Amino acid sequence: MKNFISWTLLLATMLFAACGGGEEPDGSNPTNSDITLSIAELKADATSLSVKISHTSATKYAYIVEQASLASSTYTAEELFEKGTTGACNTSGTTSFTVRNLTDDTEYAIYIVATNRENQMSDVAVRNFTTTTLPEYLLKSKSCTGFTASVRTPNTVPASSVIKWAITDLAFYNHNGGAGSEEKWLTRDEAIYSNYFTTRYDFDVNNNNSAFTKDGVTYYHYKTIQPGQPMILLLGEYSEGSHSEYGMGHYSPLFGANNPNGYFRKEVIISTKPSTLNQLPSVNVKVDSSGKGTISIAKPTNAAFLHYLILDQSKYDEILALIDNNTSLLQWFTSSEFATEHMGAKSSNQPVVTISAESLGLKEDTQYYVLVTAWEDESGMKQSFAKVEFTLSPAAPLPTDNTIIAHRGGSAEAGKSSTPDNSIASLKYAMSLGCYASEADIYWTKDNQIIIAHADSNCKINGLYPWESTLAQLQAAGKLSNGETLPSLEDYIRTVMVKGSKTKLCLDIKAITKPKTHHAESVKACQRACEIIVEMGAQNFCEFICSGYEDIVKNCAKYANAAGIDIGAMGNFSASKYKGWGYTWHNRDKGYEIPADKINSYINAGMEVSVFTIDSDADWALISSYYKSLRGITTNYPKRLLAKVRK
Prior knowledge:
There is one protein chain. By secondary structure, the chain is an alpha/beta fold. Helix content is 23%, strand content 32%. It has an eight-stranded parallel β-barrel with strand order 25-26-28-29-30-31-32-33, surrounded by seven helices. It has a five-stranded mixed sheet with strand order 17-24-23-20-21. Strands 4-3-6-7 form a four-stranded antiparallel sheet, with helices on one face. Strand 32 (608-612), helix 16 (617-623) and strand 33 (632-635) form a beta-alpha-beta unit. Helix 9 runs parallel beside helix 11 (489-496) and helix 12 runs parallel beside helix 13 (550-563).
């Protein structure tokens, strides 16, 4: 019986406990195993914290953030809902929120709890984190419509001082620069001032038609920033003082020369850089030694506007100073207000702009620059840029001490891989030696241009017949071995018409024999080349040698003589015939014999004579007795032959 009673009492006690009997709960944490919360992610920056929590059966959350050094105790769930910040939980099981107004470079603790509809609460989740250090200046976003930035000022701002900030164009800032330029810009009427005594300040810049108000002060937005345009943000600490005319105010910069310990910052802001417009503007300079001629600027077909600026070396140097010698900003500069207002930059939507060189008042011995930026549309978010340098072309080459003509620029001697036939590199090689002339082959193209190239044995250039192709097609079909684009006659003339040059161009009008004779195209090459040479004022820098076919020889002489350009005939006709066709000199192939008596027959008839191609010692022996009487000596090895004639 006793055992029966004991078992009955034990069973009753167990049932009472299972039904919730026994000691009353204290109500401090009515948690339920069905509701959970965990911190899935924390991301802190200098002044804010992004939080993501994961939860089940939760409808609301609450949190408190304290500096870790100040945290005194662990919060209960009830205290978090009573004292903390609350929000609704998402039904998806994850909720994100942001904590703001934190202090940078500080360790914090965050306490988070959740509750369900029955007011049952989860366990409290706790995590420590540290904010990042806020720099003195932090650009948060930028575009061509403005920027948003954060500025941190000194933590200890004297009660009598004020921080002023201004935004200005980089060019204008530097143009008014020099000693004290920070003071000048921070005290201009249009500068934007901010008077405050906190340690951080946010401001926005959007456009010049709106404003924003903060702490009872209205701030006007800066104008729209051009793509790629550099701006300067200036911040300086001023002290309170008096002015004889204006009374009390913040006039004395604490960062001036006499008191350099004050706060000052200068930050360059570059708005969104434009993407590249896939076509470049083209610039064609045709100016002679007297400053006459034209500068033509062609707009890319897919561009809406051109901004262009022509300036001399001193103005160019001034621009470099304005943009802190960052030449990548030249592209922006052409469309800036400063370039328009102070340097005469212009814009145009015309396909081609032609400027009279005389109107620019160009001077000798001065370097000039043409800067051109093309915009795809009014926003300017796609741009391309071209810079061309030029000087006034000299009237003629300087006197030279030799009559050596470098055949195809002397590429055989210089190395055909790096200095291929008829390349700009080969021309420069001949110029570096001080040769009298550099020989090059010319061909007429379908679009009435002249290409400099050495055709193959089938009279093709890059696999194309030049008279059936445009200059652009021939250039696009292949490059020279050194990577150069096939040059045009204009390219060659611009290269040789430079100060100090002693070298002429000896332009070989090539006969076309395959797939059939094209004598008319050879004559057109001479005619068009004469036009280009006259347009560029290069008559004293060019001469022709003409194919030996009689009809080509006769017709080319007419065009060259009318243009005032020297022309010599190749072939084996008599001196009387050459003179009758209008020639004053004869270019004789050693294959037609070049003994002294043969040469003298032309000289005695009143003609000058040049010979080609003198490469070997045996060749030199043929002319060594009379080479001084020759107008020119063509060779593939100009350096070697110059050593002989300069002895």
